[in-house]
Amino acid sequence: MNGVSTRESAPGTEEHCAQAPAQRKIDTCRSGPAKSTICVEPGGGRNTRVSAMSSETRKEIRFFVSYAHEDDEYVEPFLHGLKEMLAPSKTYHFRFWQDVDILPGETWPKEIRHALESCTLGLLLVSPAMLASPYILEEELPAFVGSGDKPVIPVMLKKINLKRHDLKGLQEAQLFRLKAGPNNYRSFAQCGSSQRGDFFYDLHEKIEERLDKLLK
After folding, report:
1. Has domain 56-215 been given CATH number 3.50.30.50?
2. Torsion angle, alpha carbons of 161, 162, 168, 173, to 10
3. Cα–Cα distance for residue pair 71/64, rounded to 1 Å
4. Where along the chain do its domains lie?
5. In angstroms, what CA-CA distances link 106 with 77, 96, 100, 103, 114?
6. pTM for this predicted structure
7. What is the pLDDT of residues 21-76, one digit of tens each?
């Protein structure tokens, strides 16, 4: 086919390499089981190597998302933006569990306990409503504070009073906020649309730094 050759390699792997006529073949294709690699070699007009990245090569991270439903106005855009920022991570494949994932007929206590037990770490969306929730205090926070052994990423979703509010055991944890200037920290709700990109960018960096320490 005018200098285009197709050959089979390892089982479950297929390679397509384009080469220029009358030129020594330089094989730069590497492949593994059950993976497809497409290579265009020097002389074919460009030098490009395309390889599909499988999520199996990344570590799976399961977030348990704890928040108050009174904050849904901010929870939805927060999670949408964070998921979008985390999706292309080279190292980690992120999954999020929320109580809205509980199916009809399933029991809340059982499903929440299972999600808490199976999560990698908690993503706590801290707000006045979240700190005032008896259910979160009794059923969710104990997995992450006090005698709980699950690591946690607390994020200030809405502004709280660090001096006056009862932080329910989170007072010893570093809460993530956007640093907008010297002594100027903002919750997600305080960020305008132009600052939310910075919020997600910085939070992504801190999440991966924390995971690098936990999983090394």
Report:
1. no
2. 140
3. 17
4. 4-52, 56-215
5. 27, 18, 11, 6, 12
6. 0.74
7. 444 333 433 444 444 333 334 444 444 443 444 556 999 999 999 999 999 999 99
